Amino acid sequence: MVMSQWWGTAIVAALLLTGCGGGAQAGGASGKAAALSQDEVRDVLPDDAAMPDWKQSARPTAVRMNDLYRREACPIKGNAGCEESRFFGASTFRHDDDAAYVSFLVVAYDSEEAAEKAYDVLWEGSYGKKAGPRARTFDLGPLGDERDARFGTSGFEGEPGAVTQTRVGTTLLWTEAASTGKGGIDEDGVRELATVLADRSRQAQNGDAVSASLGG
Predict the structure, then answer these.
(1) pTM of the model
(2) Where are the chain's structural domains?
(3) Segments in 47-167 forming alpha helices (H)
(4) Topology given in CATH for the domain delimited by 2-25+34-205
(5) Rounded alpha-carbon distances, angstroms, from residue 69 to 17, 33, 48, 145, 195
(6) Pairing mode of beta strands 171-179, 100-109
(7) Close Cβ partners of 110 (under 8 Å, ≥ 6 residues apart)
(8) What stretch of H or E contains 147?
């Protein structure tokens, strides 16, 4: 059952490959966190340049939120947590040396208030359960405006898996990491991955060039 939850992130990435590039415009009010455009959400997602030593499995893709993607992004009753959501994005990578996988997910909202309201709904209702019933919490440090992380298992044989959720302004961000062998991922590595995604979202909302990368 846990394994199906983890492979669900790969399904999300595959679905996103059918999405068309848009170029919808951003609309943030002055003095507030910016609501990102479709192109900006795609820029937030790590790409090859941001992930040295990792191989891209699914390219960064962002789609306009609709009923199909609400079911994927907010897989709880009534798709709660997707209210006032604008775009959904994902990219995935693998690391051949240690058989590790990571999926990055982004949901962009109309406002910071909408993202804040969705945060607990999605963590408690879905994402916080993805590392298994015996997962332990771990510290992400002062990352984003809100943050949670759990480290547990991703498969039936005790393979390691972890999930992080972060709110940065008008976005909710997830890093889902797993390995097919024991020792393929650890808390420090997952923290670094989550930090790259959060930093890229902050750069985009600040109107800066999006350049955060692993080891950068």
Answers:
(1) 0.88
(2) 2-25+34-205
(3) 67-73, 112-125
(4) Protein Transport Mog1p; Chain A (3.40.1000)
(5) 12, 24, 24, 25, 25
(6) antiparallel
(7) 27, 35, 84, 85, 86, 170
(8) strand 146-153
Of residues 64, 62, 65, 70, the one with CA closest to residue 39: 62
- 17, amino acid identity: L
Q: Look at residue 138 and give its three-state secondary structure.
A: coil
What does the alpha-carbon distance between residue 145 and residue 173 come to, in Å, rounded to a whole number?
11
pLDDT averages per 10-residue partition of the chain, 216 residues: 43 52 43 88 97 94 96 96 98 86 97 98 96 92 97 77 97 94 85 98 97 92
Distances in Å between the Cα of 11 and the Cα atoms of 4, 7, 69 are: 10, 7, 11
50, 60 contact by CB (below 8 A): no
Beta strand 136-137 pairing with 171-179: unpaired
